[in-house]
Amino acid sequence: xxxxxxxxxxxxxxxxxxxxxxxxxxxxxxxxxxxxxxxxxxxxxxxxxxxxxxxxxxxxxxxxxxxxxxxxxxxxxxxxxxxxxxxxxxxxxxxxxxxxxxxxxxxxxxxxxxxxxxxxxxxxxxxxxxxxxxxxxxxxxxxxxxxx
Length: 148
Description:
Elements: E1 9-12, E2 22-26, E3 34-36, H1 50-72, E4 77-88, E5 96-107, H2 115-133, E6 140-147
Parallel strand pairs: 5-6
Antiparallel strand pairs: 1-2, 2-3, 4-5
Helix pairs in contact: 1-2
């Protein structure tokens, strides 16, 4: 087995949590600290929410699994778009009900791939990602899966 990777983030909520605004940052410094709030409705402009951050992380995680899977099988993608929508119950539980993925891909130059092959690869990557994260059965849904 190879080297273990470690990734980390920090949330600093210095003014009246869970009210007010916290800031989340990542150890790599890849982006400036993001403002985070527990907005009841739509997020405030220029502030994210824990649900949005989770959705973005899930998009990146599935994208990584799918891109690597396609590359290993000799059909690398030229373009990959992963959109994630979380359905979350409101306060006080904030329970994630469903996570729906929409995926669009474009094969690399000179590569042939059918829509069915792309959909199967996407489902396999989604199954792997779901298992690796320990997500409960029935939480994940695959919506649109399209090959351009």
